[in-house]
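Tokens in:
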């Protein structure tokens, strides 16, 4: 099958390499030194899904019309990337693999003639150097759209992806996006401190910050009438307990995430942007929680403070120590 992957970074590079490995004709888009490296030496994948070098076509935009496409840029880049490829995406199934709440909705608006499907990647991948991507934790991908059963396009795309990496079509995708937003409460602290997700979750005081932001975010979801979707051992029932539990008990969820991540350091996708001197997706993660809280007429001070700290590191390029984070966040955690 001809498959296009738009934005061959950590996630797009993983998907493209694994689909190439099972025999699909894959074409990717990339830019700068990543594009040059893929053209020169292929797209190299290592880590948890094994090693593979995919010698695949690469350009700044798709040069041929695929039968199925994945959009795998960061949230802030997706609208421009979709617009640049809109002509070849029209009329096909387009799978938007993106954290946050906005990706699928935006794609649907930009591509009214396509079958847009959302996807949530629970595995972790790192962009190590131009042309080289590594999977640091293996896990499932969940595909769907809306709050009912998955549309046929999601079922079909999941079947194709599942031949290369574990993928499932799920009910209540909208609720699952919210559950993933809770999982992504881990992203900010690595971006603020420069530590891996495992180091953050292993530090008692940083874990308290993650737990507080997670609890606040779950309550925002309930204030917005969300029914959390079931992914990766988290569901509406568990998150309802987390929302109300004392912090010492709610930290069981971040600790579970740490165990699931295994021992290969996972910087998370947000720290990877900081390391490359790029703007992060934080406005679509903790920032989205703040926006949703505002819509519900409540406040989300912990998520607002965390969003501001990530923007501060984006601006200054200087990480904060765990002590500094503790000092800055302490008034909000009391
Ligand atoms: N990494 C992870 O472990 C996980 C990430 N996610 C989510 O997946 C999505 C992708 O993240 P990730 O793979 O980490 O991000 P990356 O930054 O590693 O990859 C995105 C790639 O898209 C490229 N890109 C952006 N705009 C364009 C464009 N217009 N044309 C061509 N290429 C473009 C970027 O190039 P450039 O570098 O030049 O900007 C980059 O190579 C995000 O929403 C993220 O939150 C979800 C689960 C896990
Ligand atoms: C699942 C997780 C936390 C993997 O790192 C992720 O979604 C991210 O890094 O953005």
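Residues out:
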């Amino acid at each position: 099958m001809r498959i296009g992957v738009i934005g061959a970074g950590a996630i797009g590079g993983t998907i493209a390499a694994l689909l190439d490995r099972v025999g699909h004709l894959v074409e990717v888009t990339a830019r700068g030194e990543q594009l040059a490296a893929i053209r020169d030496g292929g797209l190299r994948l290592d880590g948890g899904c094994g090693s593979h070098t995919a010698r695949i076509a690469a350009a700044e935009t798709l040069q041929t019309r695929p039968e199925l496409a994945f959009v795998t840029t960061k949230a802030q880049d997706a609208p421009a990337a979709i617009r640049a490829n809109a002509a070849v995406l029209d009329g096909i199934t387009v799978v938007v693999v993106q954290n946050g709440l906005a990706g699928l909705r935006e794609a649907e608006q930009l591509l009214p003639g396509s079958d847009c499907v959302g996807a949530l990647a629970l595995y972790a991948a790192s962009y190590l150097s131009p042309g080289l991507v590594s999977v640091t934790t293996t896990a499932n991908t969940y595909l769907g759209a809306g709050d009912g059963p998955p549309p046929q396009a999601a079922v079909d795309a999941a079947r194709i992806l599942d031949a290369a990496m574990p993928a499932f079509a799920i009910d209540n995708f909208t609720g699952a996006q919210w559950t993933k937003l809770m999982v992504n409460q881990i992203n900010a602290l690595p971006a603020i401190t420069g530590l891996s997700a495992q180091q953050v979750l292993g530090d008692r005081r940083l874990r308290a910050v993650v737990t507080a932001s997670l609890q606040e975010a779950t309550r925002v979801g309930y204030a917005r009438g969300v029914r959390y979707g079931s992914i990766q051992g988290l569901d509406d029932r568990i998150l309802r307990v987390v929302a109300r539990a004392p912090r010492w008990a709610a930290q069981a969820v971040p600790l579970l995430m740490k165990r699931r991540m295994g021992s290969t350091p996972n910087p998370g996708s947000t720290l990877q942007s900081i390391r490359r001197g790029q703007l992060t997706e934080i406005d679509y993660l903790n920032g989205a929680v703040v926006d949703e809280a505002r819509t519900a007429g409540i406040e989300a001070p912990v998520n607002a403070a965390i969003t501001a700290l990530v923007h501060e590191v984006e601006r200054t390029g200087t990480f904060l120590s765990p002590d500094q984070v503790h000092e800055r966040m302490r008034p909000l955690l009391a």
